[in-house]
Design brief:
The complex is a heterodimer of chains A (about 170) and B (about 160).
Chain A (H helix, E strand, L loop, with lengths): L1 H12 L2 H8 L3 H27 L9 H29 L1 H5 L2 H26 L8 H27 L7
Chain B lengths: L1 H9 L2 H8 L3 H27 L9 H29 L1 H5 L2 H22 L16 H27 L3
Classes of the chains: A mainly alpha (about 170), B mainly alpha (about 160).
């Protein structure tokens, strides 16, 4: 598995696109800037919704109203994150694909994306879904805390790709 | 005077401690990135409202009251972690062009906010619930948005240009 990944990374590093990204010095910081701006949209949206569920942000707005306004943006931002993230991988495949911090980041991303869908979905048909029973309120709060922790750790893991040595 | 202060920071025990640790700088940096994304992600909500592009159903003053405490807490965390990184290599940061530009943009973003709060907002009662805000408010929103994208861009460029 790991040796196959290494062969793939080596091949990717020799493609024309990768060589261009490696040789033009402004591409990586520019793509990283777009990446961070998109991360900001995701962090802003998910944090505000989580903080609302936990009762510390905008108590005069309903969870559904905030989720409708903010969570719809994060999926577009995630698409751009996938594109910019892929460009960063193509530019430096060995640094990311073979990096434990990157693997952890992707694993956490899958989990938190699933949790976000779980939170957002029922609100489309029933705005009060997370408010009607004590059990649901507790579930929503648990998702909110997990979401805050996981998104923070995703940002941390992203930065640590630069410090953790690849396999 | 400023030069001497920067040199003093640069030679401080705190600077030596951060440099000697393998973990401190990356952690300051990680928390700094998280804080900045929350600063920009939250202020963006206000900027887009002022531009008439999002949250148009919410009164401007209410939205500002809700969102700004989050922005300020995140900003405080960004300043503390940013200061720690600056101290670790003060002389090099001070003469780094992207760092200087980042600070200029921060000051401009601050001035923009002051003008918005103390001048533009004087007549907010007339457009608090309007989808289309007056030019001054739209300018403030657009300026803030661009300034923060610039702050993030120059911040990222520091890492590629700083000498150690």
């Amino acid at each position: 598995m790991l040796s196959n990944l290494r062969i793939f990374a080596d091949w990717l590093a020799r493609t024309a696109l990768s060589e261009t990204i490696q040789n033009v010095s402004w591409i990586i910081p520019a793509v990283q800037t777009v990446h961070i701006v998109c991360v900001a949209i995701v962090i802003g949206g998910t944090f505000l919704v989580s903080l609302r569920i936990l009762g510390v942000f905008a108590p005069s707005e309903t969870i559904a109203a905030l989720a409708n306004r903010f969570l719809s943006w994060i999926w577009y931002a995630l698409i751009l994150l996938l594109v910019t993230g892929s460009l960063l991988i193509i530019g430096e495949p060995g640094r990311s694909l073979l990096n434990p911090a990157f693997a952890l980041k992707m694993a956490m991303l899958v989990v938190v994306a699933g949790l976000t869908v779980l939170l957002q979905r029922p609100l489309a048909t029933d705005a009060g879904f997370w408010d009607v029973t004590g059990g649901r309120r507790l579930t929503a709060k648990a998702i909110a805390v997990l979401s805050l922790v996981l998104w923070s750790c995703i940002v941390f893991a992203g930065r640590w790709i630069a410090y953790v040595t690849a396999y | 005077m400023v030069q001497e202060f920067i040199q003093w920071l640069n030679d401080s025990t705190l600077a030596a401690t951060i440099q000697a640790s393998a973990l401190m700088f990356p952690w300051f940096e990680s928390v700094h990135v998280l804080a900045i994304t929350l600063v920009f992600g939250s202020i963006l909500v206000v900027d887009l409202r002022l531009l008439g592009l999002a949250s148009v159903g919410r009164p401007v003053t209410q939205l500002v009251r809700d969102v700004l405490p989050v922005t300020w807490i995140a900003f405080a965390v960004a300043v503390i972690t940013g200061a720690a990184m600056f101290i670790s290599n003060a002389v090099e940061y001070a003469r780094n062009f992207p760092f200087q530009m980042k600070m200029v943009l921060l000051v401009l973003a601050g001035l923009n906010m002051l003008v918005f709060h103390f001048v533009t907002c004087r007549g907010v009662g007339q457009w608090n619930e309007a989808r289309r805000t007056p030019f001054g408010a739209r300018f403030a929103g657009g300026f803030s948005l661009l300034a923060w994208v610039g702050i993030i861009a120059f911040g990222r460029w520091i890492g590629f240009t700083i000498g150690f």
